[in-house]
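Section 4.2 – Deliverable D4.2 (structural model, holo form)

The reporting period included a commitment to supply a predicted holo structure for the target in complex with iron/sulfur cluster. Inputs used:
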Amino acid sequence: MLMNYHEPLFRPPSEGNSLIFQVTLGCSFNQCSFCAMYKTKQYTEKPLKEVLAEIDRMAFLGSRIEKVFLADGDALNLPTEHLLRILERLNARFPALRQIASYALPNNLKKKSAQELMALREAGLSLIYYGIETGSPDLLKRITKGATREVMIAGLNKASDAGLKISATVILGLGGKALWQDHIAGTVDLINQTRLDYLSTLQLFLHDSVQEEFITKFEKRGGVFVPQDDAGMLQEQYHLIAGIEPARSLEFRSNHASNALPLKGRLPDDRDELLKLVEAGQKGKIPLRPLYYRAM
Ligand code: SF4
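Output (structure tokens):
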């Protein structure tokens, strides 16, 4: 067997053409209340020898491989020395590589020093995928994200200073009907203090296995969670796009399958056009993606 994937295996939508090496299994945190991705997996670090042997086995693909994604949930949790050995082997076996990416958690970026992140960048790690989810301090606690807004801002700016590209996600609907304004205001504020390259929105979709946990943790801090409908989601989308004033231009997308309205453009450059599209969606002038086509 060439690759020995341990299911379930997740990757960002834009990594569809990448060769995936599973260098860790699961998520080292695994406590976000909305997330069912790795609930069935125990976090494990694959032995370096095994990963290097897998890379060697795929070396016959040579220059056909231009992009590699390091799975699972937070490859960046591996010790830096370990990651550097993997990056070095990838570059040796795939000479046409132009991108190596992985997911990164707030705690990964907190633990790695600026020098370590720079060394990883120089060794070929070029892009990290990061779940902001929300910038609201209250909501970050309600969803048990395991990080404060300040920790996230500091980590993201450290990664950006090290030359890593950042693709971040925000989850619309996380605050429900009661807290949506706090959710969007806090998120806009966080984004405006960072330098993201890509920003995507997802719409909250609670898998059956986490629904009870999500609602219990949310309501423990007061109030009742009432889910947003599409009108509420579009209202959040509108205010998010309207509020973002990035330090440098970023690519904005809501083309993930969970979204009611697929959007794509640059912020701030295409803001007016994007807002017009959201308004058209709100007024029913352009159709929303049918519910049965949506997935998280
Ligand atoms: S959202 Fe990310 S950090 Fe949180 S449990 Fe899921 S994979 Fe882990």
